[in-house]
Design brief:
The chain has about 500 residues and is an alpha/beta fold. The protein contains 16 helices and eleven strands. It has a domain of about 290 residues: Alpha-Beta Complex (Amidase signature (AS) enzymes), CATH 3.90.1300.10. Strand 7, helix 9 and strand 8 form a beta-alpha-beta unit.
Length: about 500
């Protein structure tokens, strides 16, 4: 039985009919993981025995006729910056290479309560800082469609694991695009929920006003079910919000599309944007028009400032959040240094990678006396202007549309030495986090050489199910292949 070709929901149907056991499902995907993982490096830590233990419990409960979550017994991966009690959690950094959290993040607690076996912790750019998963302190992850290309970042491990069907479900985190950009590069679905709709308790902070946990899945329907599982108010998170009640995924009637007004972001084309990516955006626009929607070009006039504002804000927040890593209370510590001042310098010099150091220095400078008003305060004011403009646009349009990334997946090593060029990879994904929108990346087809292209739909806060319905409508009619490594060797084109 080719489980890797099936959605999590369809595997769930087999489990409920007791045509297959949860233990068999976990063992099946474990064998696939063992086969593919050496060439992809999607995981930092794997947890087979713990996953099997949960699967056996699910089988016992199902045998007794207990009511279970639809995804109970289906393996899931968790990005390595989400705390898992007793399981190594590194954030892709040497400074946390031996950190075992004493508690679970709220989203992990929800996975455990719903009895999804956690198969492992996925590789990532260090502390979420990067767009290629090349900034991991351990090794880069490779794109399953072409292992000489990057899978995107910072949730590249989660996206590569789902795209290669090492398992059907994963959680990533999105600060400025780190769920959507790797989902686009790997040809899967990536949802960034409304800021505050998913608890950040236990998510190791990079930029607290921007970080958000989101699902990465092979289908829109799987994404909706996983989102429904992790969302909800949490009194452990001061930024947590109560999502609207009684929302669920349902078919989007074609007749309703005629009522839609869609804006195509005109700044997300032209110089710096690959022709094949722009072509796919136009094809999606024609798709919605052919189904009756009104599609118009829309300008976001502050787009030129969004990238600078985003990197100033995230670097400032990172410099504050990462100040706790000194190797004294916890984290990497060089035991051969005895002078206190040298201990701080040595631990942070050896424990942090180049990109983390770069952003901490930039953020500290932006927050320093004499420069706070010129940089950080201006970035906050720009964020407010972007928010006000976005709110006006989303009063006029039901959703905004464009590419998820300006280019298809690039070569490993191509941009790692040029931080500014790497930052430009986020040009399409940083506006929505700045304003707290709901936004999803969907597979949009392939380039001439067989690499995935992602397209992005964004809407007002708490419109996740609206976006997921549209994504499902798109998926049902376009049917893009969302797995890439067959049981045989090689990459499917």
């Amino acid at each position: 039985m080719e489980l890797y070709r099936m959605s999590a929901l369809n595997i769930s149907k087999l489990l409920n009919k007791r045509e297959i056991s949860s233990e068999e499902v976990v063992n099946y995907f474990w064998r696939r993981l063992q086969k593919l993982e050496p060439g992809l490096k999607s995981f930092i830590t794997t947890c087979r025995q713990e996953a099997l233990q949960v699967a056996r419990q699910v089988d016992e409960l199902r045998f007794r006729g207990e009511q279970l979550h639809p995804f109970a017994g289906i393996p899931v991966a968790v990005k390595d910056n989400i705390s898992t009690q007793g399981t190594l959690t590194t954030c892709g950094s040497k400074i946390l290479e031996n950190y075992y959290p004493p508690y679970d993040a709220t989203v992990v607690q929800k996975l455990r309560e719903s009895m999804l076996p956690i198969m492992g912790k996925t590789n990532m750019d260090e502390f979420g800082m990067g767009s290629s998963t090349e900034n991991s302190a351990f090794y880069p992850t490779r794109n399953p469609w072409n292992t000489e290309r990057v899978p995107g970042g910072s949730s590249g491990g989660s996206a590569a694991a789902v795209a290669s069907r090492q398992l059907p479900l994963a959680l990533g985190t999105d600060t400025g695009g780190s769920v959507r950009q790797p989902a686009a590069f790997c040809g899967v679905y990536g949802l960034r929920p409304t800021y505050g709709s998913v608890s950040r308790y236990g998510l190791i902070a990079f930029a607290s006003s921007l970080d958000q946990v989101g699902p990465i899945t092979g289908t829109a329907e799987d994404g909706a079910i996983l989102y429904q599982l992790i969302t909800g108010y949490d009194n452990k998170d001061a930024t947590s919000l109560m999502p609207p009640e009684n929302m669920k995924l349902a078919d989007f009637p074609e007749s309703k599309i005629k009522e839609l007004k869609i804006g195509i972001i005109c700044e997300h084309s032209g110089d710096g944007f690959d022709e094949e990516v722009v072509k796919r955006v136009k094809e999606m626009a024609f798709f919605w028009e052919n189904h009756g929607a009104t599609v118009e070009e829309v300008s976001l006039p502050f787009s030129d400032y969004a990238l600078a504002a985003y990197y100033l804000i995230n670097s400032a927040e990172a410099s504050s959040n990462l100040g706790r890593y000194d190797g004294i209370r916890y984290g990497y510590s060089n035991q051969n240094v005895h002078d206190m001042r040298d201990l701080y310098f040595t631990n942070r010099e050896e424990g942090f990678g180049p990109e983390v150091k770069r952003r901490v220095v930039l953020g500290t400078y932006a927050l320093s006396s004499g420069y706070y008003d010129d940089y950080y305060l201006k970035a906050l004011k720009t964020r407010t202007l972007i928010l006000e403009d976005m709110q006006k646009k989303l009063q006029k349009y039901d959703l905004l549309m464009g590419p998820t990334t300006p280019t298809p997946p690039f070569q490993l090593g191509e941009k790692i030495e040029d931080p500014l060029e790497m930052y430009y990879s986020d040009i399409c994904t940083i506006t929505d986090p700045l304003v707290g929108n709901a936004v999803i990346s969907v597979p949009g087809g392939f380039t001439a050489d067989g690499m995935p292209i992602g397209l992005q739909l964004s809407a007002a806060p708490f419109q996740e199910y609206f976006l997921l319905k549209l994504a499902r409508f798109w998926e049902q009619r376009k049917g893009f292949l969302t797995y890439c490594l067959d049981e045989g060797e090689g990459v499917m084109k």
